[in-house]
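Let us practice reading a record.
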Amino acid sequence: MVFEERITIRAVGKPSKQNFDALVVWFCQSLDLSGSRDSSEKEILKEIIGNSVSGKGTTSKELNYRLETPRTTVIYHLNRFINSGIVVRKGRKYYLRSSDMVGTLQELQADMEHEFQRLARVAAEMDQILENDFHGRRRSRRKQ
């Protein structure tokens, strides 16, 4: 099974208000997770953060009930959080990837560093192929 994560980071100015709601909105914007007009993603993420920090997950049905949000909307946002790598599913429950936001972001950072190392290895292979090709063409011209 191929596992793909899409991690997008946008440079968004930090909010002047230092309250939990404003910071959750900022995280959603910074991680490119706030695409809809409603604030469902913010409310869903707040619930997931709160439940994860206290050591318990939440189900889509619980989110649907507590937030009075259509279950399809809940599942849509949960899938976006999972695809971004910020949320994981264990059984029927959803959790932050780590026990808190700092740990979750550290794990995302480690993923990005790993991917950049992999990209650098492939780039070195590409450079080597081009260098060999360039030198091969130069040698064949001299022979002519």
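A brief commentary: Residues 101-143 form the longest helix (43 residues).
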